[in-house]
Input
Amino acid sequence: MTKAVFLDRDGIICKDRDDYVKSWDEFVWIPGARKALKRLSGNYRMVIVITNQSAVGRGLVSRLSVEDIHQRMMRGVHQAGGRIEKVYYCPHRPEDDCICRKPKPGLLLKAAKDFALDLKSSYLVGDSLSDVEAGRHVGCTTIMVRNDKKAGSVRNLLTDKTRPDYIVSDLSAAVNLILKLDSAER
Output
């Protein structure tokens, strides 16, 4: 079975926006993200993005626009020497109570089925408790990236039952950790 690294998109690869990333013009790479993805791609793990995109369900952006953003993001990573195998996204609003919206594990389970992934040997990197909870549901090692916009999430870790396995400063630090953990495993 294949091992994977699952990444959230907003706050991990591109800057998070209060009004959602609705077009490629609003997509701003987080410094060092493409370089980190290049390093991660050479680690014999599949890189897959899983992201909630409720702006679609809210009527703020079309599926076509979100898919265009994802294609351009994947192309940008490829041009930097990295690879994202696939992007899975949930277009629903939180109140729709779908199975694919994190913290539910639907996106992870779909990816696992599509690519015969070993979820218990995979990592999930996100910046919110819903990311961590989704990863925990399926047995992934969870890594939370500190996000100033979601600082409350990190503060709440002390009282929340869903704690990440690790907390790091950014995607680059998460990749360093994954590479270190993988080399210790060999």
About this structure: The longest strand covers residues 46-52.
